[in-house]
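Reviewers of the previous submission asked for a worked example of the structure-prediction workflow described in the proposal, so we include one complete record here. The input consisted solely of the amino acid sequence. No template or homolog information was supplied to the procedure at any stage.
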Amino acid sequence: MSPHVLYISGEDHHLRIPFLVALRERGFRVTAAGTGDPSPFLLAGVDYRRFRFERFVNPFADMNAIGALARLLADMRPDIVQTCDTKPNLLVPLAARRVGDTRVVRLINGRGWVYSSSSPKALALRPVYRALHRLAARSTVADVFENRDDQAFFSRHRMGGKLSLLIPGWVDIDGFDRVAAAGSSPVELRHEFGLDASEVVITVTRMTRHKGIPTLLKAAALVHEARPGVRFLLVGPRESEGPLAITQSEIDRHAPYVQAIGPRSDVPALLAVADVFAFPTEYREGMPRVLMEAALARLPIVTTTVPGCAEIVRDDWSGYLVPPRAPRLLAARILDLLDDRQKAGDMAIRALQRVRRELGLEAIVDQFAALYGKLLSGSALGLSRTAVASRSATSPVEVG
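From that input alone, the workflow returned the following structure tokens.
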């Protein structure tokens, strides 16, 4: 019988459907579990189990979610449980402790709000979360990190499982190209949003403070002063983001040169409208897929020096890096990219080449499939933590 992988994530789990399909093509039986809409999984022929958890801090809801996850694990008895996102990475191993004999693999794709925010609440919660992660680590057979900074942090605070590996993030290159080709033309989209012949700076992210939207709005005002014809297009959800969301009135203060158009399913086509991609995140990112997609769209990128972004963009080579919460520097780099189109284009090509060469879906799925095979055979268990941690983030996983 094919080994059964249960992949548990949150409301954005549908973005991982290409990974699940590719894993199935490698001989695994795949089930997804998450909090989002089941219909994309049904269309892809992927078995889907829905459960509920609260994205924000809520101990009572978290305890209920742990109970629901424990029942799910006991009912399904998968060979491998793969988790992704901040809350599932913590809740699933705690649920597995109740079930026993469960191989949990966590994908650490960033550290979440608790480690991104400097608010008193986040600072107070950090030691609590470290203690919970140490407990969760006891039921985790392997942690997969997308960047070395997160790996070092988990090691330093003894929050990791038995194995620690680096596997970079991925982007579905073929899927991106298909959606880009099927979408509306740049001319049609420019007309839809009233952009006409304007230069366009785009971002794709959640409209929250820790994603740097206040910084982007301040930078937009500075760019507008220097270059009044530039328009900023903000793509991504706002209403669903609770207390972390930027307010509509904050965005409206920057009309008409800033437009927030909400979440879209045609992001590859929208990227073709733009001249610059700006991603001013303060969040402890893993490896942001939106940066890889911007690279596939041949957009020059300016983003922040947070570790996940710096895994994709090399400053002044394949884009620009600026510190978080630095609107003047962000604005200056946006203007640099608009002023020097030759240099901007050269950097965009370098980013594109790196993503196509190293970060495509197929190569990354191969590395996860190899890891699962080693865990199922038991040959990974004798590998030392140091040997695994020393491997390159872009080299194939060889855990035996």
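DSSP finds 18 helices and 13 strands in the chain. We consider this example representative of the routine output the project will generate in years two and three.
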